[in-house]
């Protein structure tokens, strides 16, 4: 989110309805960047609690995008194996 916002701010890339990011919109009271940092701890704590609760569905937590990519690749391998085994 930060990288995308920075790129949009610097390049003046249109976001929606012809709007562009401005320093005011990025740092203002209604900024999604500010909201993210203000709410991060509570969201993190909620996810940790869900992960620790055996009554909740399994929680998948990824520390970085490459971890998610590796997990998705395992799904693709499993899918391919199932298709080949069905033949």
pLDDT averaged residue by residue: 83
- How big a fraction of the residues is strand? under 5%
Order of helices and strands: HHHH
Low-confidence stretches: none
Describe this entry's structure for a reader.
The chain contains four helices and no strands. By secondary structure, the chain is mostly helical. The chain has one domain (2-86). The longest helix is centred in the last third of the chain and has 22 residues, at 65-86. The mean pLDDT is 83.
Provide a brief overview of the structure:
The chain is built from 4 helices and no strands. With 87 residues, it is mainly alpha-helical.
Chart the SSEs and their pairings:
Blueprint: H1 2-11, H2 23-27, H3 32-52, H4 65-86
Index terms:
67% helix, 87 residues, mainly alpha, 0% strand
